Every structure is written in C-alpha cells, then in structure tokens.
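Page 37, top half.
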Amino acid sequence: ENLAGVPLVDIEFPLFAKAQKLNKRIFDIILSAFLIVLTIPFHLYYIAFRKIKVSMIWTTNSQHMRIIYYQSNFNFIQDMPLLFLVFKGSLSFVGTQLLDISHENPDLIVKPGLAGLPHLSNIESDSIKEFEHYYAMNYTMMFDIEILLKSLLHI
C-alpha cells in the first residue's frame, strides 16, 4: 500500500526474484523432460487405451486449468500426465496443492505443483495461504530439493 506515493510495507519474496524464477524454471524443464522420456511407455499405453480422466483445478490469479490424469490405482501413475504441464510451465514440481474447482477460490500466489508443503502435511484447503507465504518467504533451490525428497519418501 502507498501513502502519498510512499510505500508503507515493501516485502520482497525470494520466490518472485527473476534469478530464482529462472533457476526454478530450468530445474522444472530438465527434470520433467528426463522423467517424460523415462516414462514414455506408460504414456503410450494409457493414451492408446484411453484410460484418462479430465479435471479442472485452480491456478494463480483465480484462473482455472484443465488437467488430465491416467486411470490407475497408483498415484504416481495417475499423475504422470502432469509432467507435460510441468515441462510446459503451467505447473511446477514444487508448489501449492492442486485444488479442484469444486473448492472455494483459494486465490493462490504460488503456482500449483506436484509436491509442496501442503502435500506433506495433508492439510485442509483453508490453511494453504499460510504454507504459500512461508514457501515464498523462505524459497531456495535447496528448499525445493528438500521438499521433493521428503515427498518421495512420504509416498
């Protein structure tokens, strides 16, 4: 907010710095490309037999995004199509929880991700803002890697 042109509070989130955003994007592109290549047989199988389902989720700026899941009993197989959205830049590996549009608009500030602090805590959608702010204030690449490793061990 401004008072006569003077900023009252000027908070900079490390996550939104240009260098940090570029590092995070490069990390997402490299890891998603590697995993897409590694999982091509699964993608071909599920697409060929049309074992897919479509859902809508909330993204930043109160917008919706259509995502595709594979119909499987295993979460890691269900989420494989999301790798393409990470590669495209619509999602991130580490971000906020994927919220279906049946939930009230959460007004997200962090891009939705496959893993994140809300995923590790199994929280209700009401508390996501607190996790988003903590993540944005304390963001580092090592923090992302730590969240990814904890998410893999949490499965």
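Page 37, bottom half:
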Amino acid sequence: LRNKATSKFLETLATEGNTPDTAVVFIGGNDFGKTNSAPAVTKRVKSIIDKLQGDVGEHGNPKMRIMVISILPRYNGKPPVNPVANNPKYEELNALFKKLVRAEKTETSEVLYLDLVEAFSKPPGLLYDGVHPSLAGEIIIGDAVFAALVTGTQ
C-alpha cells in the first residue's frame, strides 16, 4: 500500500469488521529511488505504522503487530555473474528502520524488524535481475516472515 492509501484501506477493513491484528511493511528500493532520502522514506514508513496503530486516523488497531522488513541488497551487473553490491543508501535506510522499530513499539503494539540482507547477500539466484526476488528468493522471504511472526523474534 502506498502511504496515502493506508487510511482508506484501514477504513474499508473496519467497515467490513476486519480490522487487522498483524501487518507487514515491505517496501522496495523503488520507493527509495533517486529523489527520496533515507530520512524521508523512514518518515513515510513511520506514518504508515502510526496509521496502522491508530495513532493517526481512526481505523487503526492500537494492538496491531507490525513487521518492517529490510530493503533487500541490490546488485549491478548481470547476476549471477560477478554481481557488484550497490547498497550504501539501502544500508543507511535499514539502519534507520531498526531505530524506527524500537521507537514505535508500544505496550500493546509489537513492532518487529526482519533483516533479510544477509540472506540475500550470498546465495546466487535469489534476485533474478539483481533487484527483484526470484522464486527461490520469494520462498526465503515467505519462510522468514512466517518464522518471525510465529516466534516473535527479529
């Protein structure tokens, strides 16, 4: 969901009696782009978390469990042949996400950070074009999200 759509989406769910108790926030590198700074993107993600928790707007859930997933590493070149990591901006953003998650956790709303950087830094073939997850990469993401939500570990 784009930040502007979060409130409308939560309103629709509330109207249907389906206010969620868990949300996963996983933005791609395209949300970061060339024009947005790491602090600006972090501010947008904070706004999404605030809406999910009900701090802003009227349809959130103050008991919502929220997981923020790291930005995946990106590579220049044609994987899997000699990919070159190109991640300084993403590393900065992931560091800010870690701080944000600690700040947004409340007594009633667990906020987790799932770091997938290491999982995507070594095995070849997880990013089919150096940016987007392949089927194998999607399986790793799904398994990691499931495990973290079940165990509550980060």
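Margin note: The beta strands are 22-25, 65-69, 75-76, 84-85, 111-114.
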